[in-house]
């Protein structure tokens, strides 16, 4: 009977954390794939391409606020406990999404609508900066005695599942609704739906208990220092290594699951419905494969899995950059996004748990927040700006792939540092 109760509690915990992960990415995907629509609705029509640029800039700004939100919420989570911050952060995500879904457009209230859209994205960036690191910290500590790689991989499953569902939803929305419906009500539906998901997540999170590992630390050594100060003073090396571990995931997923298919619509005249399908298939491939690789940690050293995955990515990126593999047809883009997604899962399914293992309990939330959020600024936040600039100037994707190749090589070299900083031998 006790075992059944424990299993039920673990399941509820996984569901509670996964919902937050799903909502975060679902909302992001909706915004990105609806960028052409939002650019028309929230900027004057005379601005043309500049409207698209400003919408991408809005995405970048929301990422720039992530580290601030992560450091503040991470500090609170390390200082006062995981549970309260873990529960509140999901509510902080829902309000901006709800407001975006109800916003009047530029045609109705002018630049005030534009300003409100940007402010809501900034607030979302702030809250997301603490939501994901909080989920990682909590899950890793609750499942430390079990296979916490597999438990943490459910967060990556949720994120990629959201990409798949979100992109497929946008595909259906754009393919099977009229132009009038899409530009009046249709674009609002993903944001309203995403905000409703958080209500379910918050309800579930209310019933969870504080992390036992955190409680144990508080009983034996309640810390009166400031976690952020302790982090920056004593853990600079793990921070750098953690950012380098995370950036290959943020860069590759943002390029191949989100921005490259979307930019191909603008610059190579692919159909939006086709590219949304590419993102969906790639994301669901990585979601399932991430669980597989995380489970394999039972039998294979995680450093070995990381190195094999990164070496595979290097070979693929080199082949694309050298024009051995071409992405200029929809069928080819489908195939290679799926292959890249499967290989990248060898990193994506493990890096959350590795981040958690790189920092002690007293500063774990803050440490993960700093690594994760700075990596996502560099790997995803500024990606739409520089990748669209490259395509506009060169009309070629090869330089984008070269950047991915360089990051993959650096990430492979970084596994030497990860091995030194963790207990994996």
How do the helices and strands line up, and which of them pair or pack?
Elements: H1 2-33, H2 35-42, H3 49-64, H4 66-80, H5 82-102, H6 106-109, H7 111-142, H8 148-176, H9 179-184, H10 189-205, H11 212-220, H12 227-234, H13 236-267, H14 272-296, H15 302-321, H16 330-348, H17 351-357, H18 364-381, H19 383-394, H20 398-421
Helix pairs in contact: 1-7, 1-8, 1-10, 2-3, 3-7, 3-18, 4-5, 4-7, 4-18, 5-7, 5-10, 7-8, 7-17, 7-18, 8-14, 13-14, 13-16, 13-18, 13-19, 13-20, 14-16, 15-16, 15-20, 17-18
Q: Return the structural class.
A: mainly alpha
Average pLDDT, rounded to a whole number, is 81
What's the Cα radius of gyration?
A: 21 Å
Give the second-level CATH assignment, the architecture: Up-down Bundle
Helical fraction equals over 70%
Number of contiguous helices? 20
Report the span from N to C terminus. Answer: 38 Å
CATH superfamily: MFS general substrate transporter like domains
CATH structural class: Mainly Alpha
Instruction: Tell me the strand percentage band.
Output: under 5%
> How many strand segments?
0
Query: In this structure, how is the largest beta sheet organized?
Result: none
What oligomerization state is this entry in?
Answer: single chain
CATH topology: Growth Hormone, Chain: A
């Amino acid at each position: 009977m006790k075992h059944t109760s424990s299993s039920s509690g673990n399941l509820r915990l996984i569901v509670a954390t996964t919902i937050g992960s799903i909502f975060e990415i679902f909302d992001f995907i909706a915004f990105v794939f609806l960028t052409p629509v939002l650019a028309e609705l929230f900027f004057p029509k005379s601005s043309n391409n500049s409207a698209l640029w400003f919408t991408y800039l809005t995405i970048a700004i929301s990422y720039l606020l992530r580290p601030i939100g992560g450091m503040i919420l991470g500090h609170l989570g390390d200082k006062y406990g995981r549970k309260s911050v873990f529960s509140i952060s999901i509510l902080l995500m829902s309000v901006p999404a709800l407001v975006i879904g109800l916003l009047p457009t530029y045609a109705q209230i002018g630049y005030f609508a534009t300003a409100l859209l940007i402010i809501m994205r900034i607030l979302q960036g702030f809250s997301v900066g603490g939501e994901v690191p909080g989920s990682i910290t909590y899950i890793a500590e609750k499942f430390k005695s079990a296979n916490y790689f597999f438990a943490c991989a459910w967060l990556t499953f949720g994120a990629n599942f959201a990409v798949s569902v979100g992109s497929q939803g946008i595909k259906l929305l754009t393919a099977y609704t009229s132009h009038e419906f899409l530009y009046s009500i249709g674009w609002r539906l993903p944001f309203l739906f995403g905000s409703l998901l958080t209500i379910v997540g918050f309800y579930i999170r209310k019933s969870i208990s504080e992390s036992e590992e955190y409680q144990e630390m508080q009983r034996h050594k309640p810390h009166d220092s400031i976690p952020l100060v302790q982090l920056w003073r004593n853990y600079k090396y793990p921070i750098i290594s953690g950012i380098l571990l995370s950036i290959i995931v943020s860069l590759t997923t943002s390029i191949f699951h989100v921005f490259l298919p979307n930019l191909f619509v603008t610059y190579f005249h692919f159909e939006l419905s086709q590219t949304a399908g590419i993102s969906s298939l790639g994301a669901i491939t990585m979601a399932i494969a991430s669980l597989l690789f995380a489970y394999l940690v039972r039998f294979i050293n995680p450093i070995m899995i990381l190195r094999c995955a990164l070496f595979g990515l290097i070979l693929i990126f080199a082949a694309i950059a050298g024009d051995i593999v071409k992405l200029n047809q929809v069928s080819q883009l489908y195939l290679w996004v799926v292959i890249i997604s499967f290989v990248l899962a060898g990193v994506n399914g493990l890096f959350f748990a590795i981040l958690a293992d790189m920092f002690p309990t007293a500063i774990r939330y803050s440490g993960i927040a700093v690594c994760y959020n700075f990596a996502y600024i560099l790997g995803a936040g500024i990606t739409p700006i520089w990748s669209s600039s490259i395509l506009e100037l060169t009309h070629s994707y090869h330089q984008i792939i070269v950047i991915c190749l360089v990051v993959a090589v650096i990430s492979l070299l970084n596994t030497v540092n990860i091995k030194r900083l963790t207990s994996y031998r």
